[in-house]
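Hi support team,

I'm opening this ticket because the web form for multi-chain structure prediction keeps timing out on my end. I have pasted the exact lines I submitted so you can reproduce it. The total is 652 residues across two entries, so I didn't expect it to be a heavy job. Is there a limit I'm missing, or should I split the entries? Thanks in advance, R.K.
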Amino acid sequence: MKISILGGGGFLGRRIAAKLAAEGNLGGRAVTGLTLLDMAPPPAIAAPFPVTCLGGDVVDLPPAAIPVDTDLVFHLAAVVSAQAEADYDLGRRVNLRGTDAVIDACRALPKPPRVVFTSSVASFSGGQGAMLADDARQVPANSYGAQKAAAELILADASRRGFIDAVTIRLPTVVVRPGRPNRAASGFFSGIIREPLLGLETDLPVPDDFAVWICSPRRATDWLLHAGAMDSRPLGLDRSLTPPGLSVTVGQMLAALDQVHPGASALVRRVEDRAIADIVAGWPSGFTPVRAPALGFAAHESLVDLVHAFVADDLVATRLDRGLAA
Amino acid sequence: MKISILGGGGFLGRRIAAKLAAEGNLGGRAVTGLTLLDMAPPPAIAAPFPVTCLGGDVVDLPPAAIPVDTDLVFHLAAVVSAQAEADYDLGRRVNLRGTDAVIDACRALPKPPRVVFTSSVASFSGGQGAMLADDARQVPANSYGAQKAAAELILADASRRGFIDAVTIRLPTVVVRPGRPNRAASGFFSGIIREPLLGLETDLPVPDDFAVWICSPRRATDWLLHAGAMDSRPLGLDRSLTPPGLSVTVGQMLAALDQVHPGASALVRRVEDRAIADIVAGWPSGFTPVRAPALGFAAHESLVDLVHAFVADDLVATRLDRGLAA
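Hello R.K., no limit was hit. The queue was backed up. Here is the completed structure from your submission:
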């Protein structure tokens, strides 16, 4: 099968590409070609199939980004939350016009490809205490979430019309993100595990009993690959799935950190930050997904396993990336 | 206050304009100017304030369509269900890019205007037996409904950002539509009242116990005007309202017809039409709105009053329009 990853240079795009390269197949079908598109051409990867790396704009999609015999498109190209909030036009352009461009490229193909799209917990609101069911209404409190929810509707309609075969995965906040601290409001959820494991102090702007809906990079990657391979017919009109993340408190995250590296949580400083707390306070604290688990989306590993996975997969690379002593 | 009606030449646009002209004010504030935009310039109307009639494309909005001191925009310009289903690109262009164009015109104004937008029961599904609450998830089964639901999200976000002050009204199927039979799947719901009152036979493609969510043109007009005048602050993030329509069966509609014009329902022929029945069977049979009534949206009149209103408001004009003897 031929696969394209739009946003193939990003955090999750690179993990999907690496896993496809390592396994050589998806859901038992051999991968025969992989195309990675990002603003700048993603770095080449070694794989048992041809890999094409392209630079380009998802809104002005280069025809080579989705070759004529493509079976599966991962549409991960997005302007993320903080940036979409800071620049309305850019968010609308990439998150909405980009999705239209993907649909138009796919409907020109002889056979409608599977399109796996990443939506987000940020398309919901409700706040602390809200545990949302699969059929909860999306009432976003930010432009990124609104654009993602609108794109879900447009993709589901294109799927109903037979232009594409859409599966949307609404990702939780991904923890632990490797690399450097960023300015995303949700960044501290990764920071309170990553920074202490690097031996660095970090700030926690919410109380220890604050609850958040998270998933690991490993699980996010597995879910997106499953969405690319699954039988989509049971989805019917509703092409969006909330996968089984973890609803955990910050206190539980710190306890897991200490279990992996005793005493590490002492590097976490309680520093109130009303601006950040106000943003994350709007997000629901969790979901009660029934549909995705029934469709084969893997249950989440434990918090301790999530911390161990960061140590195994990303700690050394993050240390090197940031010029820290080993 | 200065008001613009985009889609001002359409069925509801003309009624809103006529009511504003007759009353000279909205919610106690004097109307000081009215601009009507449609593909072809709407016919001039007599009013106690200046009225400007413009022809133009909502996607390439003429600057004069929303003058700099506009207080209120009715955004009714749309490609309707059958057409949006037949022509995907046209529906997307008008129903989505048109909404973006309205937002962009409004955010260029010194003061964000109220924008009243018409969404539709067609943005929901569920079928016979489904009675949906205010917070029901929109899972559209047609492109028109998907585009309307997506536009609701984009408008709510633009409202949250302070570009506009959005109020979306999700209109039921409007019955009785005056004029000629049309090819809309929902057309027969009006036809089974209008045609017999004109002395003409008409076809009914669903069983008598088929339930549908309707409202009268009078009530739709009142609701849209109320949406233009109401205090929008209680809406919070969720700018969309389901007004209190009527969930009625076809049999109840025919009984009301006979009460107004005894024996008229004998002109209704039961003619099965699987294609039409399949489309309307996807729509929910009703809603249980709580929010809109609490915000002052008027309860619906009885079915018998709805039929009387058609006779009073539209029967003579429809007869003339169609060249039928008085």
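A quick check on our side: The mean pLDDT of chain B is 96. Let us know if the file doesn't open in your viewer.
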